[in-house]
Amino acid sequence: MAERAALRKLLRQKRQALSATEQQSASVQLEQQLIQLPQIQAAKTIAVYLANDGEIDLTRFCHWCWHHDKQLCLPVLHPFSKHHLLFLNYQPNSPMHRNRFGIFEPELAAPQVVPLEQLDTILLPLVGFDGDANRLGMGGGFYDRTLAHWQLQRHVNAALIGVAHDCQQVPELPIASWDVPLDIIVTPSTYHRAL
Hints:
CATH class: Alpha Beta
Strand content: 15-25%
CATH topology: Rossmann fold
Number of helices: 5
CATH superfamily: NagB/RpiA/CoA transferase-like
Distance between the termini: 24 Å
Number of domains: 1
Order of helices and strands: HHHEHEEEEEEEHEEE
Number of strands: 11
Shape: globular
CATH architecture: 3-Layer(aba) Sandwich
Structural class: alpha/beta
């Protein structure tokens, strides 16, 4: 755990150190990488996130999705199930508020909840990754807890795609038993597929 915490600190500093120009360039390049993926081309409903803490920005990709009639969803902190997420429909005019971490999310409204079973692709933010598509998150375990039960039930074959800056790659990540494996990690310059 100490090794993961130290890695988290180092890699968060790396992505936070990127200039506004570097962040913008990464966002443009990432959009081009994502829209070429068969999983994105085929998807009707895609879960995205709003960048925070130096994460790579998906705004351009979101606009591409809306232009191509893809339904987008954003994660929302689950109001009753601690350390879990719900996914809500996300439109350019969705009413938003900041959650307890200061991250914008749609205002919770039951008709806007999209069941996990309806998601074709989930784009996950991450702090670090390795060449085998292993993901190191922020440490809260929200995605891992939310997706673990869902994967065990095998209700869905949605693609799990991590997205990150190239500088967030490390030679090898220490893996924990609760880490949900990803299918692929996409950066502005390349793809890393799970073995």
